[in-house]
Amino acid sequence: MSNYLPSFRSILPCLFSLILLFHFTPQSANAQEVTGLDGWSIFLDPGHSQTENMGLYNYSEPEKVLRIGLALREMLLTQTDIDTVYMSRTSDTQQVGLSQRTILANTLAPDFYYSIHSNAGSNTTNNTLMLHGGWRSNGQTVEKTPPGGKLMGDHMIDDLTASMRIPTIGNYADRTFYQGTPYNHANQFPYLAVNRTTDMASVLSEGGFHTNPTQQQRNLNAEWKRLEAQSAFWSILKYHEADKPVVGIATGYITDEESGTLLNEITVTIDDQSYTTDSYESLFNQFSNNPDALRNGFYYIEGLPNGTAEITVEGPGYYADTFEVDIINDNFTFKDITLISTVPPFVESTYPTEADTTLNPSEEIVIRFSRAMDRESVEGAFSASEDFEGTISWANDSQMRITTDSLDFETEYSISIDSTAFDKTEFAHAFDADGDGTSGGVFTLNFKTGPEDFMPPALVNHYPSSIKKSEVLPIVTAEFDELLDEATIDEASITLTQSSYQVPGTVKHYEVNEKSVLQFFPSENLTPNKNYTFTISGDLADVNGNAIGSNITRSFPTGDKDIDDVVSIDNFNSGVDNWWQPSQSGSTAAYIAEETGRSADSDIVNILTNSSSSLRVDYGWDASSSGHLIREYTPRTSPTFNDTHTLQAYVFGDGNGNKMRFVVRDGNNELEASDWTTVDWTGWKLVSWNLSEDNVTGWANGDGTLNGSMHIDSFQLTYTPGQPSTGFINFDDLRAVTFGEATSIDDEIFSDVPNSISLEQNYPNPFNPSTNIKFGLPERSDVNLEVYDMLGRKVATILSGPKSAGFHTISFDASQLSSGVYLYRLAIGSEIISRKMLLMK
Question: pTM of the prediction?
Fold first, then answer.
């Protein structure tokens, strides 16, 4: 107890009131059905407090797990002979710290400590997990003393997983789960505080993910939380080898038979008991302004007699149905139900839209129906204006496509579908052609084809510009107002020259938002303080064959600074597991979960560094809300840097005009942010934050001042009203750098045999893990090519021996070296030439 004495004294004034408040005993002997728990006590700990760990739809983990704990307490007290049930908190207003919970539990000395949680992560992840106190020693897993957490976890993982009907990770010793399974763990004690600092058997549960949209819409339901409590109740009985009371609970999901959509406001009746699934009016209006956004289709009916029962299901817009079900006595009776809509099929959307005047005759007309249609009946009901010719095809039973290749430009057309068409259901609903809610009428789409496209692609944005010095290794960008024809793009589509010298490099074409961007990645540093010209080929053409016609040239000056030292923070080549999903941060707000997430992207990567992967963040903003923020967070605390550095990342923008920024955590543990940068570019761009010169904005607990050594906290995104609410952004080669004078390359344009000794810039530079170094000899010579670090220590000999006259390219593998700036030195007799290169891992 001595280890906890200071903390204990600090909460002593409130401790005795907590003991009185959270000490619960059975209410009456008559209500008890299960024996075998007499003399045994449990401490229920609903994790966190108030609205910490906010999940989707502004419903938090502590709000959910508190209600599970309260329901479990009620079951234990009313259905068993348990001695005592304690709770760490009983309301949403209480703030109970982690140490307060475990000190209170140790003071009360129950027999078991159960910590109730839900998980956070990707919006596609959902599973259960149990964690008991344990570690690895001498090749074996050791459980904390007193034991019992593993046994309880074994029961709970089975019961909770079966009750929630989702996948499971399993039941783990906590240190093994977080730190793997070595022969010995360095720390021979539990990993989690609730297991490590409690003096009794303990376990922690993670019941699904409050960042998974499907799961969180279930979590909003009161009976769903009771379902989770019921599974924990049964596990506790198994732990005591006590008999389970007779179960009479029917539950399941109700969905639309055709679409699989979970249904709101459907009433289920069994044995004179009824349950109506949640609706916007009954529940979801508390969590969304959109009446159609949320649904769980969940029903839950208790107290049913065992045996065969009749289920009646009915609701607005659906055919009522009746089923038989066998209510079992030892578990939930799961009965999922599908219903068929009474609403006749109608047209949900078309392309083009009514009265559109822009359809290109090379595009297809697309008609999307509200449900699967009988294709033959639709084609039989189809008609068109006299001069219309097209071929009908189907993408699926609810999407019809019509070709327009034979149509004329700038001509009006009309197509129709009458109500003799019908859907594929067993009821063969006649088509609601005029969209008035009842079958009948005629659907008509009038449109006009647009003018023939004679305009070539237009250059709408480029980088670098003529008015600002670029970095010495810029990505040259040419953005167009439409898509380019891939067949017209090659390595000559963008060329970069200085005087008569053509810079080697790679051309890459990206398609973003139905527009093209070409980018040229130089394979060597440019000469500082020089003017360069990039040329865009006039042979480039759009998809309609309109060529630019004449070459486009733009010039820009290079700067005189280059990277002198680099702290590589993350090049993302090993994946993105060090970065949380946006939904895992409680700061992420006003976003659409289904459209938001982070992933590793191996297609869009920074070619300058031979990158193999980047961090992609897809976003979907709830434009009707305020306070938009995505915090793309990493918990790593190294590597560190200070305010003499410039924080940099290569950022692939979608051009949507939303914003991004860097956030760091400084030496005072305060969060400080850069200014917001509007992402008004498409393709790769180097974004920098000069920590000593640029603005610093305090965020959360920050004060706008950078103090001491710091590390990266997050990338942050926000929404700009009026801009597109969905899109993506990629990050690559996150680093902190300092700058020095740039090293010039020789102005000489090399011939097959140079007139003098020459050493070219290495390619690629920066590089990882290998690079090529080219040098030229006017005659056969003994050559030494060596690599030194910035302290002058030789770290590698690449070549030592005679080489013939001419140019030679040598590959250097730096996989054994750490990130940083190195010098490679060519020595021939008394003549020595040195160059810098940047290794970035």
Answer: 0.67
